[in-house]
């Protein structure tokens, strides 16, 4: 499903990336720290609480699989100038449209490669990134190739010590697909947190789940405090809760991959 950029009629100067009737990104180029979509706020909070705490000037590279309107890379560039960022986005027409309507500032440190996320990752050398953000959708679904245990093995092979993995996926209760994705994430990380809005956890609607994982400790207490103060309540699963939630789910494999479930029409997820 081809994506396109349109002006936001309610916010002059802002834009939305649309795939059909689904809004996938929201950007205000003049104010990259303004984040409208709730799930993007959670991704940015996870980065703020982990790798973005490192001193400015210390070399750091963040890889983004999925670009959209470059909402998260723009945020990172504004929060921590000088951070090297590589974005893998397969939609060449969308990349051109974003560059034309929402050009990046000079010396942003953001490099966009027109390539599918899995292929782009596999071309990267070992110990390449300090953070990887997975926010890739083919229309409204996470591509099957970005949800397997084999893919997570490729991620693990390219992370640096202290790296963090942050992923946005979508599903509905009882989360059969997301739990299998979570099993793959868990298998290559020592620590993992999973967040979703209260209504999503309770099965009232389809929605976003944000995974945060690392090979060392994660700031679960700090992130849970953010969740408690949010305008739209959400909750993190931590520690034993994560293991209980995944249960006996087995990771997908490249031999039998599966994209994420199809949402209802008109669902908003950035």
Helical stretch tally: 9
Order of helices and strands: EEEHEHEHEHEHEHEHEHEH
CATH superfamily: Vaccinia Virus protein VP39
CATH class: Alpha Beta
The strand count comes to 11
- The portion of residues forming beta strands comes to 25-35%
Backbone CA Rg: 17 Å
Low-confidence stretches: 266-270
How far the N terminus sits from the C terminus, by CA atoms, comes to 16 Å
Mean pLDDT, to the nearest integer, reads: 94
Shape: globular
Structural class: alpha/beta
- Count of domain modules: 1
Helix content: 25-40%
Query: Biggest sheet: strands side by side, in what order?
Result: 6-5-4-7-8-10-9-11
CATH architecture: 3-Layer(aba) Sandwich
How many strands, what sense, and barrel or not for the largest sheet? 8 strands, mixed
CATH topology: Rossmann fold
Topology:
Elements: E1 3-7, E2 15-19, E3 22-27, H1 38-49, E4 61-65, H2 71-79, E5 84-88, H3 92-101, E6 110-113, H4 117-122, E7 129-134, H5 149-158, E8 159-171, H6 176-187, E9 191-197, H7 198-201, E10 207-214, H8 220-229, E11 234-237, H9 240-246
Helix pairs in contact: 1-2, 1-8
Q: What is this entry, summarized?
A:
This protein is of the alpha/beta class and 270 residues long. The chain has nine helices and eleven strands.
